[in-house]
Amino acid sequence: QVQLVESGGGLVQPGGSLRLSCAASGFTFSSYVMSWYRQAPGERELVARITSAGGSTNYADSVKGRFTISRDNAKNTLYLQMNSLKPEDTDVYYCNAKYGPMNDYDYWGQGTQVTVSS
């Protein structure tokens, strides 16, 4: 059974930091492109993506220089280090796993709430 379980969300003041984790099971984690999304109004917005071996990453312009995506394939875990958080980063953050030429395999976690407020 495929599972993606996010953790690490919470309430933080502007300028603060959080580290999200996504524990994966039920599939070959090291073969999948992993991403973090957040629930923008109307659609899910890609926040950051990392290739299967971790050699390449890309970020939304709004988080470049503040967020860092990483993975530990030995632990089947994806991370998102979020620094210099802003109120506009407030959202539900989702972990996503994709594999295949047409993203034939596409899995989502349940989401974790991040709230940035003073």
What order do the helices and strands come in, and which of them pair?
Blueprint: E1 3-7, E2 10-12, E3 18-25, E4 33-40, E5 43-50, E6 57-59, E7 67-72, E8 77-82, E9 91-99, E10 105-108, E11 112-116
Parallel strand pairs: 2-11
Antiparallel strand pairs: 1-3, 3-8, 4-5, 4-9, 5-6, 7-8, 9-10, 9-11
Structural summary, described in words:
By secondary structure, the chain is mainly β. The protein has strands spanning 3-7, 10-12, 18-25, 33-40, 43-50, 57-59, 67-72, 77-82, 91-99, 105-108, 112-116. The termini are far apart. The mean pLDDT is 95.
Quick structural summary:
The chain is mainly β and 118 residues long.
Could you name the key traits of this structure?
single chain, 118 residues, mainly beta, 4-stranded antiparallel β-sheet, 11 strands
- Please provide the ordered H/E string of secondary-structure elements: EEEEEEEEEEE
Total number of helical segments? 0
Unreliable stretches (pLDDT < 50, length at least 5) are none
Mean pLDDT: 95
Specify the biggest β-sheet. Answer: 7 strands, mixed
